[in-house]
Write a structure and sequence with these properties.
Number of strands: 10
Helix content: 25-40%
Order of helices and strands: HHEEEHEEEEEEHEHHHHH
CATH class of the largest domain: Alpha Beta
Bound molecules: zinc ion
Strand content: 5-15%
CATH architecture of the largest domain: 3-Layer(aba) Sandwich
């Protein structure tokens, strides 16, 4: 994915859809604590998406509670869209393992982990995308996470990690896999945020004499240029009326 593509998808989605307060109310975040967590050593700026490689949310919840597991994630998203938080955002969950993202190792330090219940073959339900996007939108606003920093486990513990010697070919990660639809994720994200993103701010219009920015009416007023010269027009009308004998 590239930032340009994301912006276009967002603009297209925003022009077609609106969200309502009712959409917000249907999401509920349960909390079931996992013992597998530790103190953060860096600020949160990344989200990592995984699949559970299992089809039932209960087995993932039970495993993340199991003292033998030594793994966890911040959020587990069920096939029906159920959202279960298992580690508080402020703490580190143990989801990515050996990993690398844009010059930094140990992605758990600065990321939030999502486990999507499903397998490489199952794909993901509409409800799962909506719930995942809902929580991501909250985190996006709270931690100022850019869309480019919402990535898959395969992006931080996959081929690049192997190339760098952080993982081997046999233990590299391949989730959430090709059935995770980033286009859909970004479209739903834009719909929920209901944001209007344009390419860039307009170019300033310059006055050729004194370089004053004439773009906005208030600036025009400050610089002594009347954007609607009604007084001059009225004077002209009165002048011609008097010319033809009207008073
Ligand atoms: Zn994973």
């Amino acid at each position: 994915m590239s930032p340009g593509d994301d912006d276009k998808i967002i603009k297209d989605a925003v022009s077609e859809t609106q969200t309502t307060d009712d959409d917000e109310k249907k999401y509920n975040i349960e909390f079931i604590e996992s013992p597998h967590k530790s103190k953060r050593t860096a600020a949160i700026d990344t989200i990592v998406i995984h699949y559970t490689a299992a089809n039932r949310i209960s087995s993932t919840i039970n495993w993340f509670k199991d003292p033998r597991a030594k793994v966890s994630a911040h959020y587990v998203i069920g096939r029906d869209g159920r959202i279960v938080q298992m580690v508080k955002d402020e703490l580190k969950a143990w989801h990515a393992g050996k990993s690398y993202f844009r010059g930094r190792r140990n992605v758990n330090n600065f990321s939030i982990g999502f486990e999507m219940v499903g397998t490489r073959e199952s794909g993901y339900t509409e409800e799962q995308y909506r719930s995942c996007v809902y929580v991501c939108s909250l985190l996006y606003e709270k931690y100022d996470i850019s869309l480019d920093n919402i990535v898959g486990h395969e992006d931080v513990s996959g081929d690049e990690a192997v190339k760098l010697g952080i993982r081997t070919e046999s233990n590299k990660k391949i989730d959430p896999g090709p059935k995770w639809d980033w286009g859909k994720f970004h479209q739903y994200f834009a719909e929920l945020m209901n944001t209007s993103i344009v390419d860039d701010e307009p170019e300033p219009v310059e006055d050729k004499d004194n370089n004053v920015n004439l773009y906005t009416p208030d600036v025009m007023m400050e610089s002594g240029v009347d954007p609607v010269p009604t007084s001059q027009i009225m004077q002209l009308i009165k002048f011609f009326m008097s010319w033809f004998g009207y008073k």
